[in-house]
Each structure stands twice: as C-alpha cells, then as structure tokens.
Amino acid sequence: MFENLVESGSHKQDLSRKGSFLLGTVAIYAVIGISLLVIGIMYAQADLDRQDLELTTLVAPVPVPVAQNEPEKQQEAKPQNKDQNVDVRKELIADVTETRVAPKEVSAKASDIPPVRRGVQTVLGNESSNAAAPIAAGPGTGLGTAPTGPTKIDIGDAPPSPPEPKPTPPRAPISGGVLNGKAISLPKPAYPPIARQAHASGTVVVQVTIDENGGVISARAVSGHPLLQAVAVAAARGARFSPTKLSGQPVKVTGVITYNFVAQ
Asked: Which of 17, 131, 138, 169 is surrounded by the fewest CB atoms within 10 Å?
C-alpha cells in the first residue's frame, strides 16, 4: 500500500514538471512570434519610407456644353439624280467667252465651280454636276424655274460678232496735167554755169507725183536739154501744192512742171 502511494506522488511531480516545461516553451514561442511580428511591422514601415509614392488626384471631367447644330448641318443636302437632264451648279458662273454677262469679281485663281455650259439648262443646287441627258436651252438668255424650285439660267448661242471693217484700198493717183498754175510754192531753178558756157536753153519738162499733203514725193525729167534737167528736177522737188481731194478724201496727183531756160 505504501509503495503505491510513493509512485502516485512521483507521477504528480513529473506531470507538474512537464506542465512547467510546456508553459515555458509556449511562452518562449510567443515571445519569439511577437518579436518577429514587431520586426516585420518596423521593416515594412521602413520600406514604405524608402519607396517613391505617387499621389494621384482624381479630377472630375469638365462638362462640355452641347454645341448647337449649324444651319448648314440642319439643311441636309438633297442627293442629285444621276439621270438628271439639267446641269447643276453651286453658283452660276458664265464662261469666259460669254461677253453679255459681266463677272462679279476678277481673280487670278481659277474657280472650283465649272462655268455654265452654253446651250444647256442650268439650275442652282448643293453641288456641281453635268446632266446625263441635257436639255437644250432656248435662244437667248432667260431665267426660269425648274420643277424642284431652284433658279435656272439658259445661255444660248452668242450673237454673231459684227463684221470687221474692210480696209479702204489706196486710191490710184489722178492726173493733174500741167501743175505750174496749181503750185503754192514753185522755186525757180538756177542756171548752171556749164549750161551758160554751152549756151543751153529751151523747155525742160519734169514729171512729178504729189502726195495727199501736197508735197512732191517723186520727180524725173522727161524732156529738155541734158545740162538743164538736173537743176529742173531739184527745183521741182521743192515745189508745194494744195492737197487734192476726191469725194472728200485726199488723193495723190501726177502731173508735169515745165521750166523755160533762156540762153545767157
């Protein structure tokens, strides 16, 4: 009986010793775990301090006012019929050869809008196009209304240009006969010394041509002493006459001037 009691007391001590060891071990692990947790928190705090943090600010979008529709957008372009029988132009521009229509402005830059074709009916529209089967316009230029409502203009054939004035052919000189009495100024020829030595004398006839202003443009001796012809021609070239008119137009005149030389 006493032996069992001894064993029971010894077992209780062993259990007490094991319990103390277990508590000590748990306490040690708890201290280690808490230390690791504190070290981890401190390390994470230090790592956050080393990192470059970017602050992002969220800004609400600015409300955009709703733009009002432009008048051009409200009026949708009506599609043109491909099988139209009239030309369509955004603006009516006459061809450069059309002289009856004055241009609104003169510019060195070519227009993007083609001119109105001659002899084809043309209407105003939203785009420029040529008719697939054009309708010939009536004679002349007029304004009318197309079935769809836009204004149209018809340019017919241009009127014939006036005939160019034919140049008046030059009139042939008329004959005036002996012109001594018609002269305004008739210089007398000098008697040459060689003719005086040769006792040359007689009548020298000089044929002259007078222009529209009354001046002598040509002269040549047709008869007379050879020693006297040169001075007679020189004197005839200096003669002046009144202009001769035929039907109100001045004309050239041909005739002769006679000079009488007396031997000295």
From this structure: 169
Confidence of residue 149 (pLDDT cuts 50, 70, 90): very low
226-245 residue pLDDT tens: 999 999 999 999 999 999 88
CA-to-CA distance for 64 and 260, rounded, in angstroms? 117
- Output helix, strand, coil percentages for the chain, rounded to the nearest 5: 30, 25, 50
d(Cα 91, Cα 113) in Å, to the nearest integer?
A: 7
User: What is the CATH architecture of 174-261?
Assistant: 2-Layer Sandwich (3.30)
Please report where in the chains the tokens 């005036």 appear, as a residue.
176
> Which carries the bigger pLDDT value, residue 224 or residue 42?
224
Q: Which of 197, 202, 216, 207 is nearest to 259 (CA)?
A: 202
Q: What is the C-alpha separation between 165 and 168, in angstroms, rounded?
A: 9
Chain segment 106-137, per-residue pLDDT in tens: 666 667 777 777 767 777 777 777 766 665 55
Using a 10 angstrom Cβ sphere, with 0-12 exposed, 13-18 middle and 19 or more buried, the burial of residue 5 is exposed
174-178 vs 253-261, strand pairing mode: parallel
Cβ–Cβ under 8 Å, residues 258 and 205: yes
CA distances from 62 to 59, 65, 67 (A): 9, 9, 15
On whether the CB atoms of residues 127 and 77 are closer than 8 A, the answer is: yes
Of 219, 216, 229, 241, whose CA–CA distance to 189 is shortest? Answer: 229
